Amino acid sequence: MAVPPRATPANPMPARTINVQEAKTHLSALLARVAAGERIVLARHGKPIAQLVPLDPTPRRELGFLEGSVGDDFFDPLPQEELERWGA
């Protein structure tokens, strides 16, 4: 099975119905299609029983969202007294 083009919110792909036996045979290919944005309905004897849908992607963490800055002395070695308090 070829992987279809990726779906977009403006152009979602319609669900395709696949019987459970075919899904068992082609699970890896079906998962690739789901990852590309396709919804797949699983059916038993032609009756829909479940669907495979893509998960929402994990949002990327944004760096630099706090105000302020770190001075250059932040990277200086700690004084011996401080290191001893940390057990170093």
In N-to-C order, the SSE pattern is: EHHEEH
Main beta sheet: strand number and arrangement? 3 strands, mixed
Mean pLDDT: 83
Distance separating the two termini: 58 Å
**CATH architecture name of the domain at 1-54:** 3-Layer(aba) Sandwich
Please state how the strands of the largest beta sheet are arranged side by side. 1-2-3
Specify the CATH homologous superfamily of the domain at 1-54: YefM-like domain
**Structural class by helix and strand composition:** alpha+beta
Radius of gyration: 26 Å
CATH third-tier fold name of the domain at 1-54:
YefM-like fold
Number of helices: 3
Proportion of beta-strand residues = 15-25%
CATH class division of the domain at 1-54:
Alpha Beta
Helicity level, as a percent range? 10-25%
Q: What is the number of strand segments?
A: 3
What overall form do the CA principal axes indicate? elongated
Are there runs of 5+ residues with pLDDT below 50, and where? none
SSE map:
Blueprint: E1 16-19, H1 20-25, H2 27-35, E2 40-44, E3 47-52, H3 80-85
Parallel strand pairs: 1-2
Antiparallel strand pairs: 2-3
Walkthrough of the structure:
The protein has 88 residues and is an alpha+beta fold. It has a domain at 1-54: YefM-like domain (YefM-like fold). Helices cover 24% and strands 17% of the residues. The chain is built from 3 helices and 3 strands, in the order E-H-H-E-E-H. Strands 1-2-3 form a 3-stranded mixed beta sheet. Strand 2 and strand 3 (47-52) form a beta hairpin. The longest helix is centred in the middle third of the chain and has 9 residues, at 27-35. The chain starts with 15 loop residues before the first strand and ends with a helix.
